[in-house]
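ZP: hey, is the flavin-adenine dinucleotide complex queued? I don't see it on the tracker
AM: it wasn't, my bad. submitting now with these inputs:
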Amino acid sequence: MRSASPSDRAAPRSVDILIAGAGVMGAATAYWLSRHDPALSILLVERDPAFTHASSSLSASSIRQQFTTPVNIALSAFGIAFLREASSGSGHSNWSGPAIELGLTEPGYLYLATPEQEAGLRAAHEIQRANNAAVALLSRAALNERFPWLSTDGLALGSLGLSGEGWFDGPALHRALLGRARAEGTTLAAAEVTGIELDQRPGADSARVATVRLSNGEHVQCGQFVNAAGPWSGAIAAMAGIDLPVVASRRTVFVLSCPSPLAGCPLLIDPSGFWLRPEGRYLITGCPPLDVSDNLPLDPDWRELDHAAWERLARRIPSLEAMRVERAWAGYYEMNRFDHNAIIGPHPAISNFWMICGFSGHGMQHAPGAGLALSEWMLEGAPRTIDVRALGYTRLERGERLPELNVIG
Ligand SMILES: Cc1cc2nc3c(=O)[nH]c(=O)nc-3n(C[C@H](O)[C@H](O)[C@H](O)COP(=O)(O)OP(=O)(O)OC[C@H]3O[C@@H](n4cnc5c(N)ncnc54)[C@H](O)[C@@H]3O)c2cc1C
């Protein structure tokens, strides 16, 4: 990922929009805002301009339609259309730049269910079909026929995505969105947001973000403020006195090699908890973390690939008996502890404080649609292309959860 160059201008004193965090969410928001209104002055503030700790650099970058929340399915439908357009370079309805080398491949996701999980898988399937996702339920016999390397012992059913599911080069998408936003005039400042000053006029219903303090000593006035700080969004919100239950929750990804190829291998989600997919000539896998504490150091937790985990993998894919662990990395899910779903939109009591965070491990695929929805909401008063209002902050105030049941690992 490209670092901020010395030629990046110093932060101006007053901007139309200041975005905290230049990961894929901040970049997508800036991309759409500058596309809608090139006259806007937009400042992206990023404290880690090489993105060494950003989720956007450490993601598994996969895309699926198999969610249980209709708004997530809509964001994924937009996501796949955007990725296809951006990688083909054809059409300019969504992507205004040259074709991006995204390595987009669509072998599907395969959710596997035991007899106890079968009813849940069928219920999710109904939601997905009702929302136009191309998914099919496969019996054990159909699974055996289609994936001869898979052991179906203990399984009742599988759900396979037939279109619009697979994986891509997430950092390339992030880089391209950031590059286009900057080409359209967005300024990137290599600095940390350290404080937010609010302005509460006597008699006004709501407060406003007036000034944002940066680690380089600048005080920047902004018309609108966007919290796109990923796993650190809770800390940014706290600077404005907002309670936002988004935390940094570590996930480890292991890279495996397997001597026998797994023909047509989709992204597989096993009832025992692990996920696995091909990555070039390797496989990558992960599982729910053993240590669920927040803000753990970004060191892989090797205990997650212990003997029992190895056995679970080999039970489902017998040829993995001969697998080798090549390496591992760790990244943070930006986990919304309230209901594992994104928070997009304005804060009700601080009228110019906007949020695009809390995607809980599925944000890379949703960034193009989420950034578009937020930009429309900010500039036109409502999200027009994808109605993301169900993901607004007010649900937290009302205590009404919008649970996403298909959160992976
Ligand atoms: C292991 C793993 C696997 C994943 N797999 C998938 C997947 O398969 N599919 C999918 O769609 N998603 C996946 N995700 C999730 C996806 O990567 C994230 O949802 C997405 O990258 C979030 O982007 P972001 O811009 O919100 O956060 P980030 O990329 O973390 O960006 C936030 C930025 O804010 C900056 N920042 C924070 N605080 C401040 C501050 N005070 N001042 C200035 N800058 C600040 C940070 O430095 C950071 O660069 C995965 C994530 C992980 C970790």
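AM: back. The domain at 14-59+170-245+338-398 is CATH 3.50.50.60 (FAD/NAD(P)-binding domain).
ZP: great, adding it to the tracker
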